[in-house]
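Sequence only, no structure available. Ideas?
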Amino acid sequence: MYTEKQMAHTPEIRIAALIALAVLQIVMTAAMFAGVEPHPPLRVAPFAMAPWLAASIAVCLAAARLSAGGPGGALSAAAALMALFSYGPQKFFDPAFPLIWPAVIAAQIACVAIAVDLATPIIRKRRAA
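Reply:
I predicted one. Tokens follow.
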């Protein structure tokens, strides 16, 4: 069984992953505005990319801020899902993948870290019961 200390959960890993996602999206947004290749397309169906990236960055930062107090789990999950739109497994088939793979892999690792961080307390509680 787990001790009380082991059951305590701190969100440092989740916060770090959220910051990583925000930085990746900020850099890609800057590349898009500057026209530096490779950059995201200006439009994807059904919306323009800049507003999507802005919303994704906002959700990442809000989740990172709220995670410090604990209630940011839902926002953290939303941030990871929003990031996967830009950096998900579909990018392995993107013709630009040889140029963008560092960002794609880093974002996917961050999304996995968020998922594991969110699942860990649930798994521990079930095992302790």
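The longest strand covers residues 43-44.
Hope that gets you unstuck.
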